[in-house]
């Protein structure tokens, strides 16, 4: 299994290379040069596997045993997924009127990102221990990625973590999960801007090849292929649990279809869904967005253009106008045309506007359906789901479940909704919906904990200033390593 860049300038990398990378050197994103097929026989063999074992099977398709032997891979995944709050790690809540919710939020930070993040960090630590070296992780976050990266990597001897979050644009729980971590290897910055603002200096830092190589700089955003690779298992697990595969086989029918509805911001889950669809999993994909509707406009009209501003909504983790994982989707649907993707994405990064070629737009609209939900729609969905099921949705999950009430369930179609976070992280939205809940002890305890972070203020030349501050932090981390014993014994 070898990996290449979506922009055509890099080929032949192995899993270890892409694991320790952010963007590819040509500015693109790493993808497998070829995708393994998921045959009906493979799916039948995997049917009934618990989620951690399914993750091992999926990862083994993309991680050669020469790099991580099978027994080591099993141990790493088992350790990564051992601390979740439900025995099965993920859970499907089956509610009234055919409403099925795939709960992916039972990790430490109560967000779906814990699933892929914990595994990815274990893979990193595995190689760092073998190579007796350290790395620095640089993460921009719209709310959940930062906390997940911090809690997955805190205290590890081989990793330092630098997290930048948009001050005032995340919930109090999301913020406290980041700034209450006082471990020496964690460095948190609160930036006076949006998630897309934060992405600008981070892209330039990752484009500095000398900085990346000299300081072991890497990403744990879903830019990192390993994050997306683990997320493939979400869709396969949902399919095996909900599609009625066994019944179809017994009746001699073709593989049934599962519709998966996904709240969408950076489009990592949607990219994962498109990948497993190309691998042969019979999926219908629906991407639901909030008022930051670039993915919706792209699918509906081909207009891949940022709005003037990132809107602050009740679903802050998807308040994104640069859905960077769509680059992976464009690459897949264009027949892996790196030159086309390079031209498209460079125009988009320069002007923040692009109109998809007609054929690519047609293919995208065939693969993906979309919808847009306002804040009022989010609140209405939260209220109705509670009234009908006594089941509380987080606002991001409500963005997806809104589709259930607009497109009522048909017994002929298997469908599930992806729940990306616990409602316990979004108390203000729950209260605005007129609902109440008792926060878990882990959330209440955050209020009593000490905090530590640095501010990135909005200056006249803010983007360059932020870049300089982060560069200085990365360099100081490396300097500190040289003056203390940091390597594994």
Description:
Helices cover 46% and strands 13% of the residues. With 489 residues, the chain is of the alpha/beta class. The two termini are 31 Å apart. The model is unreliable at 484-489 (pLDDT under 50).
Tell me briefly what this model is.
The protein is α/β, with parallel strands linked by helices.
Structural class: alpha/beta
- Indicate the mean pLDDT: 92
What is the alpha-carbon Rg in Å?
A: 21 Å
- Low-confidence segments: 484-489
Contiguous helical run count = 21
* Main pleated-sheet profile: 6 strands, mixed
Shape estimate:
globular
Count of distinct strands: 13
Helical amount: 40-55%
Widest beta sheet: strand line-up: 3-4-12-9-10-11
Fraction of residues in β-strands:
5-15%
Distance between the termini: 31 Å
Fold topology:
Layout: E1 3-5, H1 15-19, E2 30-32, H2 40-46, H3 51-60, H4 70-80, E3 91-94, E4 100-103, H5 113-131, E5 135-140, H6 144-153, E6 159-166, H7 172-179, E7 186-191, H8 195-207, H9 209-215, E8 217-218, H10 225-242, H11 245-250, E9 258-263, H12 268-278, E10 283-289, H13 294-301, H14 326-333, H15 338-351, H16 358-367, E11 368-372, H17 375-389, H18 395-406, E12 414-419, H19 427-432, H20 441-446, E13 454-456, H21 462-482
Helix pairs in contact: 3-4, 3-10, 4-5, 5-6, 5-10, 6-7, 8-21, 10-12, 12-14, 17-18
């Amino acid at each position: 299994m070898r990996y290449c860049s979506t922009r055509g300038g890099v080929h032949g990398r192995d899993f270890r290379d892409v694991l320790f990378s952010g963007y590819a050197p040509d500015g693109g994103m790493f993808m497998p040069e070829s995708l393994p097929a998921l045959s009906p026989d493979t799916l039948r063999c995997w049917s009934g596997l618990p989620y951690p074992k399914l993750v091992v099977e999926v990862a083994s398709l993309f991680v050669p045993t020469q790099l991580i032997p099978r027994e080591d891979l099993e141990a790493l995944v088992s350790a990564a997924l051992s601390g979740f709050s439900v025995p099965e790690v993920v859970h499907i809540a089956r509610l009234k009127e055919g409403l099925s919710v795939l709960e992916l939020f039972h990790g430490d930070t109560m967000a779906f990102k814990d699933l892929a993040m914990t595994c990815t960090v274990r893979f990193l630590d595995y190689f760092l221990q073998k190579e007796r070296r350290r790395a620095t992780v640089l993460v921009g976050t719209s709310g959940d990625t930062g906390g997940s990266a911090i809690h997955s990597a805190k205290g590890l001897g081989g990793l330092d973590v630098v997290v930048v979050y948009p001050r005032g644009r995340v919930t109090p729980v999301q913020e406290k999960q980041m700034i209450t971590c006082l471990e020496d290897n964690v460095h948190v910055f609160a930036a006076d801007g949006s998630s897309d603002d934060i992405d600008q200096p981070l892209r330039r830092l990752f484009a500095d090849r000398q900085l990346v190589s000299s300081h072991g700089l890497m990403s744990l955003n879903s830019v990192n292929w390993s994050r997306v690779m683990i997320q493939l298992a979400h869709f396969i697990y949902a399919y095996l649990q909900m599609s009625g595969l066994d019944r179809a086989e017994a009746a001699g029918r073709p593989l049934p279809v599962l519709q998966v509805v996904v709240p969408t911001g950076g489009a990592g889950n949607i990219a994962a869904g498109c990948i497993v669809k190309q691998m042969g999993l019979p999926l219908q994909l629906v991407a639901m967005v909030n008022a930051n509707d670039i993915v919706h406009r792209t699918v509906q009209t081909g207009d891949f253009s940022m709005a003037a501003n990132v809107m602050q909504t009740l679903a802050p983790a998807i308040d994104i106008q640069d859905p960077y994982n769509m680059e992976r989707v464009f690459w897949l649907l264009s027949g892996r045309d790196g030159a086309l993707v390079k031209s498209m994405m460079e125009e988009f990064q320069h002007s923040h506007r692009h109109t998809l070629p007609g054929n690519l737009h047609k293919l995208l609209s065939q693969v993906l359906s979309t919808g847009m939900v306002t804040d009022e729609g989010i609140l209405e969905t939260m209220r109705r789901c509670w009234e009908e099921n006594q089941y509380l949705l987080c606002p991001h999950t409500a963005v997806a479940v809104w589709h259930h009430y607009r497109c009522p369930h048909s017994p002929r179609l298997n469908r599930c909704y992806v729940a990306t976070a616990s409602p316990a992280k979004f108390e203000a939205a729950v209260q605005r919906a007129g609902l109440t809940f008792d926060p878990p002890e882990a959330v209440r305890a955050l209020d009593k904990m000490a905090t530590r972070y640095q501010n990135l203020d909005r200056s006249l030349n803010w983007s360059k200033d932020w870049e300089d501050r982060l560069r200085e932090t990365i360099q100081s981390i490396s300097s500190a390593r040289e003056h203390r014993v940091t390597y594994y014994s």
